[in-house]
Amino acid sequence: MKRFLAELSRIILGLTFVFSGFVKAIDPQGGAIKIGEYFTAFSWPKADSLSLSLSILLCCGEFILGALLLMGIYRRTAVRLIFAFMCVMTPLTLYLAIFNPVAECGCFGDAIMVSNWETFFKNVVLLAAATFLLKNARKPQMLFSANGRWLPAILAIGGIFVFTIANLVYLPMLDFRPFKVGKSLSELTQVPDGAPEDVYDYVFVYEKNGKKEEFDMENLPDETWTYVDRHERLIKKGYTPPVTDFLLLRDGEDVTSQIVNDDGVTLLLLSPTWEKARDEKMDNISEMYDYACAHGWNFYGVSASTSDEISAWRYNTGADYPMLFLDAVTVKTVTRGNPSLIILKDGVIRGKVSDAGFPNVGQAQAFFDRYLEGEIYRNTYWGRLSILIVWAAVFLFGVSRKIGFYVSSLSHSRKTDE
């Protein structure tokens, strides 16, 4: 029974940590944003510069510990680290559940939203499993021998680091946010014509003999009551677009509808703030801007920068394109790069590209043809997944070999009994 419970604990912990680390590694910048929220909630603003490093360390560390546990190698070290991790996270998530300083813990990134109380109860189960496994660390079986365990360990470690850095440099492999490639900005942000609107009713407050009561329009009291106040009450909720905080401003004027409903091609160069945007690809940006101007396309810089920051960016880079304002949180929701390019055609997002993928000089036509001609272009991600795929194959080979060993042992035992 102890061996069975130890194996069950190993599988539960291993799968949870591998999944949690993997979905965080898809969007390490999103993890950094969540860690920044923690620093803000606990009044540690100076630690915000560590957010990205901690995000990478967290997602890679979780995946590696889960992978080692699933494979049954370096068991005692992996179990001790997981137990220590759960001893920290369980009381922390209890605090989050009680006081709610952040709305959602971010334990599974943006892939699965889990409430703070759900996270705490999950961690209680994981802590119990880690405690039991800590006392019985040697009971689970190893999938690989002591001499052969180095290969899957290196594949797991190298694979998750390569995968994480690729998602950081070239934007997330999967987009869990509303602004996915193929989505219409108009449908995401605008209320369509004829959509149902909010329906309200008036509520009147009257007072009599020191007692206040509320009445609707059809049941007003007699003249012995004294009118006090009136307010609206929502009776029926109307249509609300999926995104309500996408507001583009140009010199203080709302131009959102003009941008998202524009026919033709529009290019948005986004950065939360130009002060922190990478300027190594200025020649690439100029190449795209010149190509857009030659084809009559709209090209805008979009950020939450102040006028001084915009002026400094123009001075340092020679930027001549018009600038729009968009809240920094919304910019980070739309895309993770700094800067990034959003390619729109008839208001539909046709592509999202980080500065690492900007076209070199002379390659703008091939670059834009890829995203604008024919069907919507879908990036492939075999490169960043390749090492993890090899690790998964080696892991499954170890599992199948162990199952084969058990089956042959059982068959031999039956023949011996006969």
Automatic annotation (TrEMBL):
UniProt membrane topology term: Multi-pass membrane protein
Pfam family, one: MauE
Keywords: Membrane, Transmembrane, Transmembrane helix
GO process terms (BP): methylamine metabolic process
Subcellular location(s) of the protein: Membrane
Transmembrane segments: 49-74, 81-100, 150-171, 381-399
Identification of the protein by name: Putative membrane protein YphA (DoxX/SURF4 family)
Organism: Porphyromonas loveana
